[in-house]
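Re: beginner question about structure tokens

> Can someone show what the tokenized structure looks like for a real chain? I only ever see the sequence side.

Sure, here's an example I had lying around. Input first:
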Amino acid sequence: MTLLELVVLAGCAVAVVLSGLRWVRVAQREHYLPGSVTRFAARWWRARPESSALAVLSVLAGLSATAWRWPALITAAVVGIGPLGLRVRGTTSQLVWTRRCRKVAALSAALAVVPVLMGGLLGGLGVAAIVAGFTALAVAPLVDLALFALAPLERRLATRFVETAQAKLARIAPSVVAITGSYGKTSTKGYLAHLLAGRFNVLASPKSYNNQAGLARTVNELLSPGTEVLIAEMGTYGPGEIAAMCSWMHPTVSVLTAIGPVHLERFKSLEVTTRAKAEIAGGAAVVVCNVDDPRLAALANELTARGQRVLRASAGSPAPGTPPDVIVRGLAGGLDVEVEGAALGLVELPQGANVAAASNVACALAAAMALGVAPGELLGPLASLPVAENRLARTVSARGVVVLDDTYNANPAGGRLALEELARQGSGGHKVVVTPGMIELGPLQFEENAAFAAAALAVADTLVIVKRTNRSALLAGAAQAGAGRTVVLEGREQAVVWVREHLVGGDAVLYENDLPDHYP
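And the corresponding structure tokens:
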């Protein structure tokens, strides 16, 4: 039996390594949140009937290995290759061996090895082989256990970086504009940086560096003497996080763009979302609120009653109450701007330029005004607003197909705007929507995706569903629509091929959202 048991141990070791690489990459993609890996493992093993069958087989084989050692090799084989579709090497994002990643991988490996060694010491190779089989099954929870164990250490390390950033920020002393919202943060940040560029020396937090560590890194590595305005995007997965960032960044102006069901699986309710986002208002000299959102309109009234200065921004559909200070209405090819009830002017955008949400522009204008820029000075820069990457960007292919790229972090409100833009594209040609649906919507995820599919087929001739995460919800919504046709494909690459084969000049396609490859 010794040779067989050694083979079993070797097979399980290989399986643990392959599985560990998969789940450590998922941990990295999910910002090392404890518990996220096991949650994704459950999604992946349920995503395909074949994967579910393999999962059952691996467990049964592991149990059988208590009597006969060889079934543990079946467990090792399943764990080594599964779940189906989740690759060891990513396609949209590969594993990056950062300091934190190496620590997670090392501790996860130790947690896998120790039980096997203990089994071997107490019961010999036979027990070690049995334990190895069950360890192979538990790699995802072991990675989560490593994340839980390392979290206090990471918090202490983050505190050091934050203290360094706080001291540097106090020394250079720029005005800080903090921006949050369920969506619209990055676009508003880009718009504001553009509007201020000719007047101030501006630094905007790069990419999506919108948590404590990312903002500390922005200050430590990028903030230089002479910077007059720092624009800090702030994201959160729960109450207390934005308050912690504001406690050392001390924003002069705070901006709230929107409240919606994004990350609702973590927040649990929109009321909690609103409270968490509203933390950004504490201590700010001026707060900008998008009052098209009823929750933010109520917050604006509450802040005003507390004596804070509030600038209300709108895209022309404000909630009942105090009139907006800034209104920006999106027109075909331009923007209509109104400040404090008076028309400021019409702004013509370049051919093909597009503003995904006029409320984001209104928030940026209000924030610029809060920093002392006269409204009249902002009309010129408005005409050359940057188009945020993958946010309803419009291009025309060599074959004459209009392509709307709205693949960055879709949400229900943005999805509706994207469908409105698709409806405006030409006439007579075919219209197609390609989507994997929307994620992190908690209990509303099925409902919102079904509603989006039905709305898509009210505009488009064809709905192309990619990946499996929201397939059932999108199919249910398509069935409710009772019009158009539905195509189901495994991934974005196949969808692009399909579009090239079926669309011609005069047609239009909307790519709405794009899930990273750690989603099934």
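Each token stands for a local structural state, so reading them left to right follows the chain. The two ends are 40 Å apart (CA to CA).
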